[in-house]
Amino acid sequence: MKLVIRKPEVRDAERISVICSTGWRETVEGQLSKTFQQQTVNYWYSSEKIIQDIKKGSYSFVAETEGTVAGVIGGGMTGGRSAEVYVLYIDKKYRYHGIGKALLHKLTEHHQRKGAKKQWVSVQENNELGMPFYKARGFVQQSVKKTKSAAGEVQVSLRMKRDI
């Protein structure tokens, strides 16, 4: 499978929307209500929002294989010498082929060029795909962050960090 890592383009927005909304729902299934899931997807992963975020640079890279966007990563500098992975999702059909690893590597190189020495990520509690992935790449849990939604639901994220 030939893999191309490139900057996202506006034409990728619909595909990014599908990958991110599906991936996010998989991570919160059984933890957050369907109503909250739909509200979140409608806000963060609508094509219009993704187009805005592509233009702002919030989505850093996409992985393309066989002419299809198979995964996406976004991140940025968060101050000083720290960087953050905001989003990383791989289409289910393309998982376990090294795409997530390749995207994280590309983003990490980008962060290092910008002067980052630390890289952070928030992982949804009980994320059975994300936790082992990040741990295998040297991320260590630093704290637990609880966020209450407008509907009163509590979303629990694990804050993880690694030196880069």
Automatic annotation (TrEMBL):
Domain N-acetyltransferase, residue spans: 3-164
CDD domains, per database record: NAT_SF
Protein name in UniProt: Acetyltransferase YpeA
Pfam families hit by this protein: Acetyltransf_1
Gene Ontology molecular function: N-acetyltransferase activity
Keyword Transferase carried by entry: yes
Gene3D superfamilies reported in the protein's UniProt record: 3.40.630.30
Keywords: Transferase
